[in-house]
Amino acid sequence: MAESLISIVLEQLTSITVEQAAQAFKLVTGAEEEAENLTSNLRAIQEVLKDAEERQMKEETVKHWLNRLRDVSYDIDDVLDEWNTAILKRQIEKEESTVTDHVPPPKKVWSFALSSCFCARQVVLKHDIAVKIQQLNKRLGDIANERSRYDFRTGGSSHEQIRNITTSVIDKSVVFGREDDRKAIKDMLLCGSSEETLNLRIISVVGMGGMGKTTLSQLAYNDVEVKSHFEKRIWVCVSDPFEEERIFVEILESLLRKKPNLAAKNNIQEKISELVSKKRILLVLDDVWTEDSSKWDSLKASLKSSSPGSRVLVTSRKKEVGLAMGSRSTTDMLMLEKLSEDKCWSLFSHLAYPERTREERKNLEHIGRKILEKCQGLPLAVKALGSLLRSKAKEHEWQSILDSKMWEIPGVENSVFPPLFLSYYDLSPVLRQCFSYCAIFPKDYKIKKDELIKLWMAQGFVKEIGNRGREIIGEDYFNTLAMHSLFQDFEKDKNDDIIGCKMHDVVHDFAQFLTKKECLFIEIDGVKESWKDLYFKNILHSMLMLKTEDATLPIPVSNWKKLRTLLIKFNHRADQTSLESLLTKVLDQLTCLRAIYFSPDHPGGSIKGLPDKIGKLIHLRCLILSGNRDLIKLPEAICDLCNLQTLDITECWGLTELPNGIGKLVNLVYLENEKMYSLRFMPKGMERLTCLRTVKEFVVSDGGDSCSLQGLGKLTLLQGDLTIRFRSYRAEASEASEPRFSAMTGLRKLTLRFDGDNLRPENEAFAVEALQPSPSIESLVIESPRGPTFFPSWMMSLKMLKSVSFFTCDKWESLPPMGKLPSLESLIIVLMDKVKKVGEEFLGIETGDSSSSVIVAFPNLKTLVFWEMGEWEEWEYDYEKISRSRGGQEDSSCITIDIMPRLQSLSIFDCPKLKALPRHLLQNTPTINELEIGDCPFLEERFEEGRGEDWPYISNIPNITITKGPSVDISSEEGED
Fold it and tell me: Rounded to an integer, what distance in angstroms lies between the CA atom of residue 610 and that of residue 20?
């Protein structure tokens, strides 16, 4: 990790010009050469770091040398960042004064005085920085001189760019060598016994870390037969310690499928007992450590009301745990054995040999089998090494793994660690830091991928490479760690993209082993005080879970002066005053912070404001305040954080405005501001934030102090999703022809929401026409327009537009000609109460001579949904008439018109007056495989099975659902949890 850290420090140094260094060091006599000496010492140390990093596992003196190097490197990084920040603030001040050059003379006098004062502060600051660097350089020089004692090998430093991994993440359901164990668990869950008089049978799966206990339990839990056998299934990760209250709450939450309101333990137990009463349940308690049977008694008592055949499945590393919980060693316990050589080889080959030729496999097999002997039959070790060797094609690379000294690390009891060490040291230095950083999270924590990448960025781990942005590089880093089997349990979105993951508990242990003095997770519940024995002085990254309602920190904040990451999740019932007091202490004393996360564990708890002290955190890159729903104001001092890259205020419902000086946040890249329902406008300074890549919601409002659509158009790097909320809009004739968003080629989804009371309906179409988005848009949503139907001219240019949704267009009397869109695959129309008829206009087929013999309306549409169209009566089109008008002739035989030729799913809900569906569509669209109708009485009658008038036209559709009410939930907030 030191290697990556020194690279960061050197990058800081090179960003400071020779002239700037000279100006600073001239303020200190005899210090002109300090910057050059500092760089020289760092580069000399860098040459031996690879050898030192590997030797520290066996040599305590080398580890001590690296720890000293780490400490001084972080101190240097802080000082250089302070220097760079001072330079940046000076540049910002110059720009601010340029903006105000037109103001009257008195203002200029004040501005000159302020500038003079600023210059005086700069002189003092440069002097202080120069003195600090002199002192740090002496410390570094001593460390550099000591390297000769250890006879380090030079060279071999890893600065290569990350390898491109093109294969997908391995599916954990691909299990090798555990078929018998998998069947045994399933049989114990499903099969009764002659002695089954007890309601609850306790089954234990026991084995050392990395044997596959959790994976096998997950496969059993999700088995189709198991799902149908048990009425209720609950999964709880217990880990160490065994926390009764948390386990009770998680069980109740799973049963209720929502956060319980009960607080008292007795009430929770009674509710659980009530919910499982006379039901066959499966409760999985994963990773149990306690051998104290009394810890389990109250939980067992609350489950006694369940039906016979209920099961508790326990996973543990110790047989004694299973016995303490009530498993019978002869019938209820599965002891996982190590995998046989053949089964290990099957798993290893699957991971290490994809896309290799038979000859390549043959050449590498003899080394591979020798490597496998060192894995001692442990699946996780085999998996780690297979993933590692996947990217190594040469025989000498495999031989170097076999000959590595990592197999002989002293003092490492866990036999899975040596293979993990090999995988770890195969990573580039920056990737090692990215992986080790994850030790900050607790076991079984659901890691959000995007959030993790932003935290990496805040620490300087992720930098742009060429024209590849940081988020792309961060994504590569994440995927590489996943390919090394360091992440698992991947959560995916509807597009099958990974959005979250977990770490195997042994991998988590390994990460914590690597970062004993750097990363720390603490849970504070007012009872346990195990944290008191921990050493805090050199902790750099910490996550706190505050379980008590009194949000106090029993550890003196002054102990954490060097802290760079502080993630605090507090109780959703926490006292607001104590929360704000805690935050004030943190901001006042922890001035080295790069990242702050301060959010409730569930919606409820919140702060009302941020103290002005936030402006002191000059190093801060990431500030996450999501879920603080009572937060009503951000102080102007936040605009002094000129290094800030991420500001997350998602679900801060109470915020009505952003700071006026937001234009000074020149490094802001990600503004996460979804669900800010009270926000009235965007400050005018927003248009200066040209580094922004994410703005989730932009509010359009009249007024000289607000940023206009024209200003939004300057943010050309925006990507992903963008919602524009029109609160008020005054149309200007000069705007109509100006392309607004044509340069935003990274945008994929655009939502237009009209929700202002002062919005004039006649301006809507004008505002939408003026947008002119990039052809890269794939999804368009229009919500709550106040005026008549519009169809902007630019929609035809959106060649990649696949999805369109209209919500609450209750003034529209007709549908736009959506059939014109060539790439449209999904169309959702909800709440159009004034539409009475849908006809030829919807198809978008215009009158006139045809240049083609085949005309297609909706050529790629696959999904069509209508919902809550209260006045809709007719949906019909005259196919013959369309053909004649399109061909411009009476004889239409030479014109072929296809309508929705690829339609697969048609859904119509809550359209009580709709009398029929177009027969031509039903007869000529054999691709339809799903038809859903709900709360449409006329259609229900016409399509009654075997009897309805139109039943013959739909009888060949494989999946037909006709109900008395809607069976789906369609929301404008697509993709939300």
Answer: 34
Q: What is the 3-class SS of 370-395, one letter each residue?
A: HHHHCCCCCHHHHHHHHHHHCCCCCH
Percent of the chain past pLDDT 90, that is, above it, reads 32
Give whichever of 7-16, 301-310, 558-567, 620-629 has the largest mean pLDDT. 620-629
Question: Is the pLDDT assigned to residue 17 strictly greater than 70?
Answer: no
Residue 308 DSSP one-character state:
T
| pLDDT for 188 beyond 50 | yes
Sign, CA dihedral 139-144-146-152, equals positive
Q: Are 673 and 695 in contact (CB under 8 A)?
A: yes
Quote the CA–CA distance of 234 and 252 in Å, as a whole number. Answer: 9
The per-residue DSSP string of 754-801 comes to: E--TT--GGGHHHHHHTT---TT--EEEEE---SS----GGGGG-TT-
- C-alpha 383/C-alpha 170 separation (Å) is 10
pLDDT of amino acid 671: 97
Contacts of 496 (CB under 8 A, 6+ apart): none
- For the chain, helix (H) and strand (E) counts, in that order, are 30, 30
Look-up of token digits 């800081």: 12
Q: At what angle do helices 265-276 and 294-302 cross, to 10 degrees?
A: 50
Tell me the pLDDT tens digit for each residue of 279-293.
Answer: 899 999 988 888 888
Phi-psi region of 339 (alpha: psi -120 to 50; beta: other; left: phi over 0): beta
- Angstrom CA distances, 160 to 157, 390, 428, 465, stand at 9, 18, 7, 11
Q: Is 102 left (phi over 0), alpha (psi -120 to 50) or beta?
A: alpha
- 808-830: average pLDDT: 93
Gap between the Cα atoms of 575 and 562, Å rounded? 28
As to burial, measured by CB atoms within 10 angstroms (0-12 exposed, 13-18 middle, 19+ buried), residue 35 is buried
Question: 925 by DSSP, 3-state: which?
Answer: coil
Taking residues 846-869, what's their average pLDDT? 82
Residue 936 neighbours by CB under 8 Å, 6+ apart: 908, 909, 910, 911, 912, 914
Between 13-22, 437-446, 704-713, the lowest mean confidence (pLDDT) is in 13-22
First to last CA, the chain: 36
Q: How far from 720 is each of 463, 670, 683, 749, 751, CA to CA, in Å? A: 20, 11, 22, 6, 11
Name the phi and psi angles at 600, rounded to 5: -75, 155
- pLDDT recorded at residue 886: 56
Query: Model-level pTM?
Result: 0.80
Q: Chain centroid to CA 919: how far?
A: 46
| Spatial CB neighbours of 95, under 8 Å, sequence gap ≥ 6 | none
Question: Residue 468's Cα: distance from chain center in Å?
Answer: 20
The Cα 622–Cα 670 span in angstroms is 9
CA distance 435 to 412: 19
Give me the DSSP letters along 82-113.
HHHHHHHHHHHHHHHHHHTTTS-HHHHHHHHH
